[in-house]
Specification:
Layout: H1 23-26, E1 50-56, H2 75-82, E2 85-91, H3 97-106, H4 110-113, E3 130-131, H5 147-152, E4 157-162, E5 181-185, E6 196-199, E7 205-207, H6 214-228, E8 234-239, H7 255-260, H8 270-292, E9 299-305, H9 334-337, E10 338-344, E11 353-355, E12 359-360, H10 364-372, H11 387-391, E13 403-407, E14 418-423, E15 426-431, E16 437-441, H12 457-474, E17 480-481
Parallel strand pairs: 1-8, 1-9, 2-11, 2-12, 4-5, 4-8
Antiparallel strand pairs: 2-10, 3-17, 5-6, 6-7, 9-10, 13-14, 14-15, 15-16
Helix pairs in contact: 6-8
Length: about 500
């Protein structure tokens, strides 16, 4: 296959996707920067790798320079992609945050968990024939086994820093779900100043006085955990709240984005761009800490997002654009579920590779289990390990399995109740309010504009049977009739 990355290493497939064609040109050659510098501390030898999992909140698929964004400056993440694998078809298990976070922690589809919306999601539409399922769960149950609990049995120390958002009761807080070090966002979770952080319990709360930018504070905690646990295997789950609305950047990062504004046909939000740059700075600090403590060579770093970006006015001006993908956060279309993912592991996986193999967020738990020698997974785990895909980004088989989505709700971003399945190049969407089926060939139609269901009837039926059969197996809760609905 043609190597489209421009880097040495294995050849890999790079589809002709608008917004990514400039990948070779836009990754800066940062060999002289601190990010790529040689550590002065010899790497510590240990049997099991450290894992740093960095999760952003509402970061869109093309919001990084290495994904073709011409406005937002992300030199650290661009360089991380240069030294690892960039995935063009990585998916979140849900178009909103809480279900995806639960899927990451457990390896299970949100539909199986019954946690299918963000925790306080209760929107309805009086003009719709359906209502959301009445009994969907508003937390991740304490009986579920998390990746932190599994890694604890392997001698790992685990940290949860940032946004938890899968349940607040003490029995289901991160300190009760296997994490040894917890710095969980407390009050004012949508703000970036005047928030609070719970430290390992609800009894120890640190409150910001308006001077500590939240993204930077979370980075500080991540660095602290690395420094305290450098002598044993560790798992850091660093869940930034950025760039979720409110769109509140650091003021010192705005100037250059104001000067960029209006210089291209595609508009962008300077405040949002500055927020993303702060994330990039934070990743740089984490990478510096890994090198400084001598553990970089034995640490796999994952960077991804919990769902698509916000592409409409929500608590302020439009944050970002998912074009050419269809729709945005809260929708079952590609703009709501396709997310950026970069993975780096020095000396263990190819450098500068781009993979168009698809996978979803349920796959993280089984991947980390295989990585750390855990052979027995919890019951009903839906994901599969993508470790072979990391070592060979064009590995066969990953584009020949179905992946599913189930969102029986009305999102704050105008999404409607729907489900979807992808198998190979084809994706079927079922609209739950009407029963309408839509079929798309993503290899030829990334924007999901050409519905093939009326032409490829056999394929549509095949895909529908996959989706409906899966819903039965996982006991997915469906919308219920709206008794107030009047069919006009």
């Amino acid at each position: 296959m043609e190597n489209r990355t421009g880097f040495s290493g294995m050849r890999c497939s790079f589809p002709q996707i608008p917004g990514l064609s400039g990948y070779k040109a836009i990754i800066p050659m940062l060999a002289g920067t601190a990010l790529l510098g040689t550590s002065q501390v010899a790497a510590r030898v240990q049997d099991k790798p450290n894992i740093v999992f960095i999760l952003t909140d509402d970061l869109g698929w093309k919001d990084l320079g290495c994904y073709g964004n011409p406005h937002i400056e992300t030199p650290v993440l661009d360089s991380l992609a240069k030294r690892g694998v960039l995935f063009t078809q990585s998916y979140a298990a849900c178009p909103v945050c809480s279900p995806t976070r639960a899927s990451i922690l457990t390896g299970k589809y949100p539909a199986r968990l019954g946690l299918t919306n963000f925790l306080v999601g209760n929107r309805t539409d009086p003009e719709s024939p359906v209502l959301p399922p009445p009994d969907w769960k508003t937390c991740l149950g304490a009986s579920e086994t998390t990746i932190a609990e599994l890694l604890k049995e392997q001698g790992y120390s685990s940290a949860m820093v940032g946004k938890w958002h899968v349940g607040n009761h003490d029995s289901i807080a991160p300190w009760s779900q296997g994490f040894d070090y917890t710095r969980m966002i407390g009050k004012n979770g949508l703000d970036y100043y005047n928030y609070s952080i719970f430290k390992d319990s609800y009894q120890d709360e640190w409150t910001d006085d308006g001077t500590h930018y939240l993204t930077d504070k979370l980075t500080e905690y991540g660095v602290e955990f690395i420094e305290q646990n450098k002598d044993k295997p560790f798992f850091l789950y660093l869940a930034y709240s950025a760039p979720h609305v409110f769109i509140v950047p650091r003021g010192d990062k705005l100037r250059k984005y104001f000067f960029k504004y209006g210089r291209s046909e595609e508009k962008f939000n300077p405040h949002y761009a500055a927020m993303v740059e702060s994330i990039d700075d934070g990743v740089g600090e984490i990478m510096n800490a890994l090198r400084r403590e001598g553990v970089a060579q034995n640490t796999i770093v994952v960077f991804t997002s919990d769902n698509g970006g916000v592409g409409l006015d929500e608590l302020g001006p439009i944050p970002t654009s998912m074009a050419p993908l269809r729709k945005w956060k809260g929708h079952i279309y590609e703009g709501g579920i396709r997310v950026p993912t970069i993975i780096s592991w020095p000396g263990k996986i190819p450098q500068g590779s781009v993979s168009d193999c698809y996978f979803t967020s349920t796959d993280w738990l089984p991947t980390f289990c295989e990585l750390t020698g855990i052979s027995e997974l919890p019951e009903d785990v839906d994901g599969v390990s993508i470790l072979p895909l990391l070592k060979n980004p064009v590995a066969d088989g990953y584009n020949n399995r179905p992946v599913y989505w189930h969102y029986p709700h009305f999102s704050n971003q105008l999404g409607r109740p729907a489900g979807a399945v992808r198998l190979g190049d084809y994706k079927l969407v079922e609209l739950y309010e009407t029963g309408r089926l839509e079929l798309y060939n993503l290899a030829e139609d990334i924007s999901e504009t050409n519905d093939l269901s009326g032409i490829l009837k056999d394929k549509t039926l095949e895909m529908y049977n996959l989706l409906s059969g899966w819903r039965t197996r996982v006991n997915a809760q469906m919308p219920v009739p709206n008794p107030q609905f009047i069919n006009k």
